[in-house]
Amino acid sequence: MGKIYVEGIKIYAYHGCFKEEALIGTNFVVDVELDVDLEKPALSDNIQDTVNYQAVFGVIKYQMAIPSHLLEHVSQRIVDALFLEFPTIKKIKLKVAKLNVPLGGHIDSVAVQIKRKRGE
Predict the structure, then answer these.
(1) In sequence order, which residues have a C-beta less than 8 Å from that of residue 56 and are 6 or more positions away?
(2) Which position among 3, 91, 98, 117 bears the catalytic label?
């Protein structure tokens, strides 16, 4: 078993409960940690035997493009889509952070983190 990390994915998107967030959008950062059996790709040196991080990025980018009111909602969609797309993923830890949050003070970000095992 091993882990694949895809971290610091910067995406401009339109998630939030305020009307302005849906209109003007903001920056988000997504980090994902995937538990995967890395033995076969370590031996074969074949991208077909592993979880392709470019494809992981594509799934995240696609799901982030669909507006949601809550970070919890978009995060769950991403986790579900990754499990669906990559049957070899055993466990996912995903963090979605919204930057420049309009909460009336200086806040670098707010974030949601989901940890889920396949089948839960």
Answers:
(1) 4, 6, 32, 34, 82, 86
(2) 98
Q: What domains does the chain contain, in order, with CATH numbers?
A: 2-117 (3.30.1130.10)
Residue 46 scores a pLDDT above 70? yes
- Burial class, 75, CB count within 10 angstroms (exposed 0-12 / middle 13-18 / buried 19+): buried
- With helix as H, strand as E and coil as C, how does 61-104 read? HHHHCCCCCCHHHHHHHHHHHHHHHCCCEEEEEEEEEEECCCCC
Q: Note the pLDDT tens digit of each residue in 3-25.
A: 999 999 999 999 988 888 788 88
Residue 98 annotated among the catalytic residues of the structure: yes
